Amino acid sequence: ETGVTQSPTHLIKTRGQQVTLRCSSQSGHNTVSWYQQALGQGPQFIFQYYREEENGRGNFPPRFSGLQFPNYSSELNVNALELDDSALYLCASSQWPNNYGYTFGSGTRLTVV
Amino acid sequence: SQQGEEDPQALSIQEGENATMNCSYKTSINNLQWYRQNSGRGLVHLILIRSNEREKHSGRLRVTLDTSKKSSSLLITASRAADTASYFCADPYNTDKLIFGTGTRLQVFP
């Protein structure tokens, strides 16, 4: 049974550019959630995907968008990058309904310069 | 979903000591979960306690739940340097979305 895999592990982008982060969910999980974690803060919920549809969104602007694929893997896209988007982006998969907890990936460290 | 609020924000202890951190929440819980995060890494699920449970053990971890006080505590016994991490609590509460607080940063000195 594989865990959650995120790619890339590190990324440097220039302000105004676009970025795509990828996540492969754990086998048997049907739900993917994305989080943004700034240094010294707790993870902030961006959105969740279930059965390829967005199933809840946190307080993030529309330039943060996502996809979930039939194999339950997912992408997070961020357009028009800003310096404040620099953070650790975490992906977590779970099986809905969630009675056993989430499995997190190791994250993608995004730096916007 | 609801956000758990962890307390204290930071905790420093010596190896071998016990570490206790608390979590408070505002509404009913369903499946309260505790996670650990080593610096700059992903979160690791530690333990889940359901609303009809009062105490749960897993190795050196003990979690208690007091639904009347809307609080939970995580006790790590005989702490090790490797326990140095941030600890978070959260409950999806029927919406299957985990909302995290700022966590408790635990530092265990050798």
Structure in a nutshell:
The complex is a heterodimer of chains A (113) and B (110). Chain A is mainly beta.
Question: Can you lay out the helices and strands and say which pair or pack?
Answer:
The complex is a heterodimer of chains A (about 110) and B (about 110).
Chain A: E1 5-7, E2 10-13, E3 19-24, E4 31-37, E5 44-50, E6 53-57, E7 64-68, E8 74-78, E9 87-94, E10 103-104, E11 108-112
Parallel strand pairs in A: 2-11
Antiparallel strand pairs in A: 1-3, 3-8, 4-5, 4-9, 5-6, 7-8, 9-10, 9-11
Chain B: E1 2-3, E2 5-7, E3 10-14, E4 19-24, E5 31-37, E6 43-50, E7 55-58, E8 61-66, E9 71-76, E10 85-91, E11 104-109
Parallel strand pairs in B: 3-11
Antiparallel strand pairs in B: 1-10, 2-4, 4-9, 5-6, 5-10, 7-8, 8-9, 10-11
Describe the fold and architecture:
The complex is a heterodimer of chains A (113) and B (110). With 113 residues, chain A is mainly beta. In chain A, 0% of the residues lie in helices and 50% in strands. Chain A contains no helices and eleven strands. In chain A, the strands form two sheets. In chain A, strands 2, 4, 5, 6, 9, 10 and 11 form a seven-stranded mixed beta sheet that branches. The relative contact order of chain A is 0.33. The mean pLDDT of chain A is 93. With 110 residues, chain B is mainly beta. Chain B has no helices and eleven strands. In chain B, the strands form two sheets. In chain B, strands 1, 3, 5, 6, 10 and 11 form a six-stranded mixed beta sheet that branches. In chain B, a hairpin with a 2-residue loop joins strand 7 and strand 8. Chain B is globular. The mean pLDDT of chain B is 90. The chains are: A mainly beta (113), B mainly beta (110). At the A-B interface, strand 4, strand 5, strand 9 and strand 10 of A face strand 5 and strand 6 of B.
